[in-house]
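Q: What would this chain look like folded?
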Amino acid sequence: MRRFIRNTIMTSILMAASAGTSDAVIVSGQVTNESAVGIPNVDLDFFDRNLGEFIVTSGDDTDFQGNYSVDVPISEYDIFFNAPVGSPYLDAEVRMDITGATTIDMTLLFAYAANGLVTDTMGTGLFNVDLDFYNKGQADVIETNDDNTDVLGQFNVLVPAATYDVRFTPPAGDPYAGYVVPDVVIGANLDLGTIVLEPGLFVSGQVVDQGLSPIENLDFDYEDDLTGDVIFTPRDNTDGSGDFNTAVPAGSYRVVLNPPTGSGLAYKAISITVGADTTLGQITMEPGFTLSGIVQEAGAVPVVNADLDILESSTGDEIPTDNDNTNASGNFAMTTPAATVDLVVKPPAGAPLAVHITRNLAVPGNLNVGTIVLSPGFVISGQVTDANANPLPGADIDLVEIGTGLPYPTLNDDTDLSGNYSIRAEGNGYYVIANPPTGVPLAPDTVVVNPLSSNTVVNFSFGAVVVGVGDGVPARAGAFYAHPNPFNPTTTIRFDIAQPGRAVVSVYNVNGRRVQTLLDRVLSEGTASTTWNGLDDAGNSVASGRYIAVLRANGETVTTPLVLLR
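A: My prediction, written as structure tokens:
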């Protein structure tokens, strides 16, 4: 596949008067590099857009000073400036309506070679893999020359200096997943080495609306359950029949369906595990309704660029949406399906405001929720250390509401290099949970702050006694704990029952979605236990990460954190 980069540096395009009665006119100019030095032997090709073909031209190479002069019929052209083979310059292209003698001076950009090899997992070179260079500064894919692998899987692509995400797309129908090499800095010739494409498993189906009409150009995003990252998936849009067939690596994904702009449909998310070619069947998209309102702080001051999330109340799953930030007036208008939702409003970074949640909001159709006022809330801060008083950077702090047993979203909630943290929350009662940094073999720790009625300090020392200082009342959570923790594959959760009655133990993810109910029955007074084996209610293995066990008994709710390590 041969493509051309559209050159953005053109020193002049001058149009003279009409060439009179003659059908042929002169197109002339000079081709130079970025130092204004003429480039010889640049070949010009003229594609006649009215005829739909290239025309035959003579004398269409630049001379030793980079000058050219070509006779062409009057027409509209795509004019290609093809750099000499082996030169360090990028080809360029310009579209012109030639109605008279025309001067076009063109500058070819200097480029560097990015080369390497693309293979499968067995080391066999892969032919015709397409490379795209996504310029991170311009937020766009540049067009490049000769950017497909050869029969041996080798590539050698000329690109200008910049920082790129380099995307590798296998040929349509080939059983390989796409791949991205991020943050590739091109400032000299660069060997990218060997790129190995994983086997791809095809996920297929059809997307329709409620009238069963196919939806064209709906885009799929695959979020990896293990990392939370959106993976690169070539050819992930539906065709004119609403069909899709996308190759992805084996794994578990949250798949977000993004309807075409202006379709009036709501976004949708589904969870899938791909271990073989998978058919999702027919997926029906629901009508979208507008959820709108205004976000302010005290004094009716608009909160600009607040971020809004919509969660399904029954599961805690995030409902994908669009336009989920407030504008300069604090207004928002998002698309959502008809549902009962939790509306989460997060203040912009650095604003001394707390997150606000409106729970169990019924959205039967278009709904304006009016004004949501964000309060300063109160600050919970402190330090996380190990038993030897060494600070633990990268520890994660979570809050769980005592009244509901549901997570309360927090911003910038990881400890810094000194082990310090500082988060804001609305006045309420909370379990404050400190999760050790990833890879550190320590169990999470929990302190109760009830009520949070002023700024409060809670220090955590894993393996030592924790002391909380402040007007709030930090205290150790009761006898509700898991061992081992972290665990793989099973942990035992133990707890005390003060008096006979119904007890329910459930596991939730950190977004508040119930993963599995472990126990729901009447228990006698005393100590009880249950186990969790890292599965959800459907019997599927869940990803490594942080979870929260919630016990509801005798009218009270207590929680304990869990860490699953696969």
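The radius of gyration is 31 Å.
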